[in-house]
C-alpha cells in the first residue's frame, strides 16, 4: 500500500470556471494545494499531488493525493490512492488508503484496501481492512470477500467474511454468508445466517526438492 507525506512545495491555487458543460483537462493534472471541484463541474483527467482534493462535482479519472473528500453530490469514476478518504458521494473504482470513512450517503464499487474502515453507507465489492472495519447500523456490504483482523457489524453484511481475530455482531447486526472466524461475540438480537468455520492461519508452502538424478556406469566383470 502506498502512503504519502505532505510536501513542502509552494502553494498554488487551481481555479476552475463554473459551467454546466464538461471541462477537459490534460491527462495528468499536478496539484500542491487544496483543490475543489464544484457542483455541476465535470473534470476529465487524473489528479496527482501532495495535499487535498474536495469533490462536489464529477471527476472522470484517477486521484493520487494525501486527503480526498467527496461530497454528497460528488462522483469519482476512477481509482483513488490517498492517506485519508471521506466519501459522502459515489466512487466507481478502487480505493487504497490508510483511513476510510464512508458516510451514510456514500457508495463504493470495486475494491477497497485500507487500514481502518468506518462504514455508514454502502460497499459493493471486495474489502480488505488490515486492522479493523466498523459497520454502523446504516452500513451495508455485498461482497465476495470481506477480510480484517477485527470486524464489528451493526449493519448488514452479505457474502464471504473472514475475521482473523474477532467478529462482533451487535444487536442490529446481520451477517449472511460464508464465515471464517477465530473468535466471535454476538449481542442479543444479532443474527448470523450461513456456514461458519474456524479461522486458521495460512501456512507457507514448502517447495519439495526434486530428487537428483545421478548418472552411473556399471562395468561387468
Written account of the structure:
With 221 residues, the chain is mainly beta. The chain has 2 domains: 22-110, no CATH class; 121-201, no CATH class. The protein has no helices and 22 strands. It has a 12-stranded parallel beta barrel. It is globular. It starts with 22 loop residues before the first strand and ends in a 23-residue tail after the last strand. The model is unreliable at 1-26 (pLDDT under 50).
Fraction in beta strands: over 45%
Largest sheet: 12 strands, parallel, barrel
Order of helices and strands: EEEEEEEEEEEEEEEEEEEEEE
- Approximately how much helix is present in the residues? under 10%
Mean pLDDT: 84
Strand order of the largest sheet: 3-5-8-11-14-16-18-17-15-12-9-6
The rounded distance between the terminal residues' Cα atoms is 69 Å
Low-confidence sequence ranges:
1-26
Secondary structure: elements and pairs:
Layout: E1 23-31, E2 35-37, E3 42-49, E4 52-55, E5 58-60, E6 63-64, E7 67-70, E8 75-77, E9 80-81, E10 84-87, E11 90-92, E12 95-96, E13 99-102, E14 107-109, E15 112-119, E16 122-124, E17 127-135, E18 140-153, E19 156-169, E20 174-181, E21 184-186, E22 191-198
Parallel strand pairs: 1-3, 2-4, 3-5, 3-6, 4-7, 5-8, 6-9, 7-10, 8-11, 9-12, 10-13, 11-14, 12-15, 13-15, 14-16, 15-17, 16-18, 17-18, 18-19, 19-20, 19-21, 20-22
